[in-house]
Each structure stands twice: as C-alpha cells, then as structure tokens.
Amino acid sequence: MDLDAFxxxxxxxxxxxxxxxxxxxxxxVESHAEGPYVWxxxxxxxxxxxxxxxxxxxxxxxxxxxxxxxxxxxxMPMSVRVxxxxxxxxxxxxxxxxxxxxxxxxxxxxxxxxxVEAAIKLARAYTGKPGIVTTQGGFHGKTxxxxxxxxxxxxxxxxxxxxxxxxxxxxxxxxALEAAIDExxxxxxxxxxQGEGGIRVPPEGYLRxxxxxxxxxxxxxxADEVQTGxxxxxxxxxxxxxxxxxxxxxxxxxxxxG
Length: 258
Ligand SMILES: Cc1ncc(COP(=O)(O)O)c(C=O)c1O
Known about the structure:
8 strands; Aspartate Aminotransferase, domain 2; 3-stranded antiparallel β-sheet; globular
C-alpha cells in the first residue's frame, strides 16, 4: 500500500507532533517554497513567519544561494580533505573579516549544536579548566555537551547524567554571573538575545558587562550567535549592538541559508 507522507511521518518519525499538527489543522505535506512563501501539496500557500528559527534570513531558495550550491555540486560536492578547499578557505577569511575584532580562526561543523560542542572543547583545552556558566532560559542545542548548557528539564531530564561543571545563572544578571565564576570556570556562554527562551533582550550594557567581567576574571566569553548571527537582530551580529568582541562565537543557521 502506498501511504501518504503524513501517515509515514506519524508512524515512523514523530507521532506526538503529528497529533499536534492534526489538532491545529496543519496535517499537510509541504511541496515547495520561494522567498517568504511555502506551498503544500494541495496548492495552499503559507506566509512563513518562522524562517526556520533564523536559518532563512535570505528567504527560501534565494537565487544566489541556489546558484552557488548548484555550481559547487557540479564541480565537487565534498572536499576530499587531503587537499585544501578553496570555498572553505575563502569563507573562513570572509568570516574573519566580518566578525568582531580578534576572531580570526574558524572551525567548521555541521550544526549549531556542533559549534557549541567545539566551543566547549576549545574553552576547556585553552584554559585547562572544566567549568562553563550558562543562563536560565538559554538554548544551545541538544547534543550532550550543548544540552548540558540548556537548562530546560523537558530536554535535560531524559538524558541525565549531563556534563559536570555547569552552573546556571539568571539571564541579564551580572551580579549572579560574577558570583558564579570561580577558579574552575573556563567560560561563560551567552546568547546576545535569547531565542528559544522567548526573544528575551537583555538589559542595556549586559553584553558589555559580561565581556568586562570575563576579561577581569580571566575566563572566556562564548557568544552563541547561532540564532542572532548574520543580520537577524538588525546588525550583522547580536554582540555588535554593544561593540563586544567575544573570545569564541558560534554560528550556524543563516550561515548555511538552509
Ligand atoms: C542559540 C542557539 N544555539 C544553538 C542552537 C542549536 O543549533 P542546531 O539546531 O543547528 O543544532 C540553536 C538552535 O535553535 C540556537 O538557537
């Protein structure tokens, strides 16, 4: 029997979400997309306000992105790794050029969570210390390390035990942050605006305060720009609003344009 895609999704991927979609009348199958619009297989058009949580900053299928991807697929889909990839090297140089001063080196991964994993490991390797301070309401991904920095019981509890050495402080509270940093702290991770936490904008001066505090205490500042980066807040990076240069910056989503 040839089952429709919605039924296959419900049976083999996520019955809970399928139930919710049915309840909200969105038990439809997507067909194609263009700019801000998505069409389902029955020809209904939707205005996409979600933008894949900050991934589609250029909209769906921006012609320049499609053209560049097609060109590379025709030429060489994957780098062989034992030779240097020109697009990768040029992208790294472009990122060094456009990110805040001092960010010169790039590590490429496949997702936001993977960028956060890399930031945790780099911070630990550089400082020789294990501790990371994160914020209430923060979201940094769902792989084990990133999940450990995402203090949400629904996500964390089924996966315990988590990474040790993580402290959680209220977002926007510099005093609590100062009290949480100790001699075991490698880094503080913070979103310039909390995305999944509810589009929470911190009090003015917070990011600058985090920068000053971390510098004073000799710990690293990780700006998680996975959602705020690449123009999402109206500046190229969320930290640009306060002229802050973090030690590590995580990017994903809009960097790949989907
Ligand atoms: C701030 C932030 N960090 C990390 C992530 C994880 O990114 P990914 O879903 O690509 O693993 C997200 C995803 O929403 C995010 O918003």
